[in-house]
Specification:
- By secondary structure, the chain is mainly beta.
- The protein has a single domain, classed as OB fold (Dihydrolipoamide Acetyltransferase, E2P) (Beta Barrel).
- 5% of the residues lie in helices and 47% in strands.
- The protein has one helix and seven strands; from the N terminus they run E-E-E-E-E-E-E-H.
- The strands form two sheets. It has a five-stranded mixed barrel.
- The two termini are 28 Å apart.
- 23% of the residues are buried.
């Protein structure tokens, strides 16, 4: 799994019928310290995430292992919303502190 921050939404009025009902987000990849890598991807949301949140996502065939994406052509899927990221005893990201 990889880290990203949701930077925006992607809306598509015409898409493969099996993708109907999925929400798509533009995600900026992060390193383990929570710093942006300057690389972006579009991921299907399986957990009800929102713009600005830090998330865990998967790519490749693992993107189809959720109830929301099963049997759908997804190769990047948001699997979790991050509350706290701690690396080497240091908190690199705390969701609720940023919400204040």
């Amino acid at each position: 799994m990889l880290l990203a921050r949701i930077r925006g939404t992607l809306v598509s009025s015409h898409k493969e019928s099996s993708l109907e009902g999925l929400k798509f987000f533009v995600c900026e990849q992060l390193d383990l310290q929570g710093k942006p890598l300057g690389k972006y991807l579009v991921a299907a949301d399986a957990v009800g995430a929102g713009v600005g949140e830090v998330v865990l996502y998967v790519t490749g065939s693992s993107g189809r292992y959720t109830a929301a994406t099963k049997e759908r052509p997804c190769d990047a899927t948001i699997m979790a919303i991050v509350d706290t990221l701690e690396v080497d005893g240091r908190v690199a990201y705390q969701k609720f502190e940023e919400d204040r």
